[in-house]
Amino acid sequence: MAVTQCVLVVEDERKIRDLLRTYLEHDGLSVITTGSGAEAITLAGQSHPDLIVLDLRLPDVPGEDVAREVRTQAAIPILMLTAKTGTADRIHGLELGADDYVTKPFSPREVVLRVRAILRRAAGEADAEQLASYGGGQLLIDETRHHVTAHGQPAGLTSTEWKLLTTLASVPGRVFTRYELVNRARGYEYEGYERTIDSHIRNLRRKIDTGPREPGLIETVTGTGYRLAVTRDRAPARPPAAVPDQAAAG
Questions:
Q1: Which of 82, 113, 130 delimits the end of a domain?
Q2: Can you give the pLDDT at residue 237?
Q3: Residue 211 belongs to what domain range?
Q4: Average confidence score pLDDT of the chain
Q5: If you ran DSSP here, which 8-state letter would residue 217 be given?
Q6: Given this model, what pLDDT does residue 70 score?
Q7: Where are the beta strands (DSSP E) in the chain?
Q8: 2-16, 62-76, 77-91, 228-242: lowest mean pLDDT where?
Q9: Residues near 27 by Cβ (< 8 Å), separated by ≥ 6?
Q10: Which of 126, 154, 239, 245 has its CA 20 to 30 A from that of 21?
Q11: Is the same domain home to 11 and 126?
């Protein structure tokens, strides 16, 4: 079941506030409203909305100050509302961190469409952040979809193999002992011998290291454990078409 996204509407004019609430809720969004800048800052910290529709002209705290304060708490997308139509005012709003800018009077439907566009963009950026690329694209790990692509080919991993790989990838180059890996993969209550990890690593290597590649993506550190032998890339790319969810029981 999809989680309903939440929008915080900060507007001191009740008619506009109620109108936006009606349109946004009709579009399937959860809505919180306030006419106070100070309360908006509190609500943003407590309710963690997915987006804020923010009027710049508020009776207590200017909308610009609200935006600045919210940005210190979290990277919440902001759609600014204002009666100012000058280019300089629009640029100023965007410089404050606004994701979009709507001038009054406006169509409520236009606001809904802009809200939806920002939310889609934010969701896409969040997905991108969950995709990690290593070794110039040799290894792609998609945390959101539990997909692994190695050397351009999808790798179907068991749940144990997935946990082992993501543990190693959490700090590329760091040596993880067998004891650490068995605890990460099986939990602290697992009573199996640490050397069972060797078998899982061997199976994992068969799936992500195809062909005569030495030393491969996973390197053995004699007498200690294992490490990921490639570094994380700065700009990961979206992997090929989606494959069935991995991390099956195992």
A1: 130
A2: 47
A3: 135-228
A4: 79
A5: S
A6: 86
A7: 6-10, 30-34, 51-55, 78-82, 100-103, 131-134, 139-142, 147-150, 153-154, 176-177, 218-221, 225-228
A8: 228-242
A9: 112, 116
A10: 126
A11: yes
Residue type, 147: H
238, two tokens: 């979206």
Do 125 and 197 reside in the same domain of the chain?
no
Is the Cβ–Cβ distance between 231 and 172 less than 8 Å?
A: yes
CA 158 from chain centre, in angstroms, equals: 24
With b meaning 16 or more CB within 10 Å and e meaning fewer, what string describes 66-101?
bbebbeeeeebbbbbbbebeeeebbebbeebbbbbb
Q: Which of 30-34, 126-130, 150-154 has the lowest mean pLDDT?
A: 126-130
pLDDT of 239 > 50? The answer is no
- Count of structural domains within the chain: 2
Cα 119–142–157 angle (5° rounding)?
A: 145
- The mean per-residue pLDDT over the stretch 63-72 comes to 85
Q: Which two tokens stand for residue 94?
A: 């965007």
Kindly state the tokens that stand for 2.
């999809």
Let me know: does 70 contact 107? Beta carbons within 8 Å: no
